[in-house]
Amino acid sequence: MKRPRFLPDNFTLALIATVTLASFLPVQGHTAVVFGWVTNFAIGLLFFLHGAKLSREAVIAGATHWRLHAVVMLSTFVMFPLIGVALKPLLSPLVTPDLYLGILFLCALPSTVQSSIAFTSMARGNVPAAICSASASNLFGIFLTPVIVGLMISGTGKAGFSFDSVLSIVEQLLVPFVAGQIARKWIGNWVDKHKAMLKYVDQGSILLVVYSAFSEAVVQGLWHNTPVSALAAIVVINIALLAVVLFLTTWGSRTLGFNKEDEITIVFCGSKKSLASGVPIANVLFAGHAVGAIVLPLMLFHQIQLMTCAVLAQRYARRKSDHAARPDGAPAPAPATR
């Protein structure tokens, strides 16, 4: 039977089911403690596999394009946060403090890896550079996200930057990632052959963290304290935020003289925010706070960016080109950027 077009993808349905389950059957007490241990193990495994999947050859191939990577990093870690802070007068009357904190947290996160590369490839962009930029963004995000969040929310009384939080993130995310890179020498071929299967580890880890975070938030009264109008406002805000960033990255790449393939890479890597990295980081950075409410804007933004960028990638792919894309997704030689 053909899947109805109006249905979202399976992972989106799983996220909805997980939030629904946590709303009616939240994990509590000693069970929540044990569940937290399992979740931490799953997060460690997730980043270990991210490290094992990352090809060093691909990174080296794309790493030389420093101007492109600089633009992506500035978009991800400077432009996004500045927009989030600038929107405070507009957003504060529309959403709860925790939801606005979630918007700020979203703005401080690194780019996605898989979807940025996939959309760049679909749109016939510079795939090696996308691999390098997206991967570097996630690696730097382990250190930069806590610092940026701390700077944006200083004086609000919320959790923010601390050396303990950075150390916890390094232990839970960076150490497994580095271990995966080291282990790639022995398990890299196996990981490359089973990427389709290993995506369930990625998705399963995210679902575990979402269930744990929303369980805690529900116990603390998330749905009683969050009006429907605030949820609707978050959706509109996410759409507007993504539209602004897509416009600025497109305009900026053209103004700086990048060719079309590089423009595509900048647009897709510079406009994304990672759910896979964001939920675990929030779980550490905001321990003891309403993590469920804080990650809610990110979950909504994640779905909006996937649907929007899928349409945008198809539009890029239909463009006329003077040269054919290579089989590996890298563009044929083009004039250097000015």
Automatic annotation (TrEMBL):
Keywords: Membrane, Transmembrane, Transmembrane helix
Keyword Lipid metabolism assigned: no
Transmembrane segments: 34-54, 66-87, 99-119, 131-153, 204-223, 229-251, 281-301
Pfam families per record: SBF_like
Keyword ATP-binding set for record: no
PANTHER family: SODIUM_BILE ACID COTRANSPORTER 7, SOLUTE CARRIER FAMILY 10 MEMBER 7
Name the UniProt record assigns to this protein: Bile acid:sodium symporter
Native source species: Silvimonas iriomotensis
